[in-house]
Amino acid sequence: MNRDVIKYIAIITMTLNHISNIFLDPDTLLGEALLDIGYFTAVTMCYFLVEGYHYTHSKKKYGQRLLVFALISQIPFQEAVGAAAFNMLFTLFFCFLILCAKEYIRRPAERTVAIICLTACTLFGDWALLAAVFTLLFDWSRGDKKKTAWAYGIAFVVFGGINFLSYYMAGDAVGQALLRTLAAGGGIIVSGVIMLCFYNGKKSPRSGKFGKWFFYVYYPAHLAVLVLLRAVM
């Protein structure tokens, strides 16, 4: 399974998540199921962010693409979710800067402060803190399947712990909160299985510029379409 196929799967699951956010009641079985399916996307994109950072011919252009499309996506994102928060591409941009800080800031104390500050910036965005944690985990585990398995395991525990507390504090019984947590964490588990067992580490030979730009364009475009659909329904 190549990189482009996995990215298209992530695009589909992200779209289902956003459909649930915009059109469905999250307390219904279908609404929660589509939300949970979409949790595959964020952890997968953090994995590919790390991979792309180390493979790209120009880190400067990579960062510029993230920032430009984050700016383009901001209004559609806010209209879609109704929240004054940065969209996921902004979060990925901060995660990109975390990787830059790790590579280019030589003094350990300064590097640590920079990483903490950039991680704090994600508090204002989608997948606050979690995306930064995922990115650091995947950068630590890069090129080592055993470490990658541990990275996914830690990601599941961190994400699951936050969700469990959220469900429990919202009034769910322990058993119900645990079941909902396991369902929500399924996307991370599936992402880990795909990366460890099926991903061949290559992009599609037919990818070209289309594959390079499609995700960036699709993100704001699909949000705008969903917002328009909601307006006319």
Automatic annotation (TrEMBL):
<feature type="transmembrane region" description="Helical">
    <location>
        <begin position="213"/>
        <end position="232"/>
    </location>
</feature>
<feature type="transmembrane region" description="Helical">
    <location>
        <begin position="5"/>
        <end position="24"/>
    </location>
</feature>
<protein>
    <submittedName>
        <fullName>Conjugal transfer protein TraX</fullName>
    </submittedName>
</protein>
<feature type="transmembrane region" description="Helical">
    <location>
        <begin position="30"/>
        <end position="50"/>
    </location>
</feature>
<feature type="transmembrane region" description="Helical">
    <location>
        <begin position="113"/>
        <end position="138"/>
    </location>
</feature>
<feature type="transmembrane region" description="Helical">
    <location>
        <begin position="150"/>
        <end position="170"/>
    </location>
</feature>
<keyword id="KW-1133">Transmembrane helix</keyword>
<dbReference type="Pfam" id="PF05857">
    <property type="entry name" value="TraX"/>
</dbReference>
<feature type="transmembrane region" description="Helical">
    <location>
        <begin position="182"/>
        <end position="201"/>
    </location>
</feature>
<dbReference type="InterPro" id="IPR008875">
    <property type="entry name" value="TraX"/>
</dbReference>
<keyword id="KW-0812">Transmembrane</keyword>
<feature type="transmembrane region" description="Helical">
    <location>
        <begin position="62"/>
        <end position="77"/>
    </location>
</feature>
<feature type="transmembrane region" description="Helical">
    <location>
        <begin position="83"/>
        <end position="101"/>
    </location>
</feature>
<keyword id="KW-0472">Membrane</keyword>
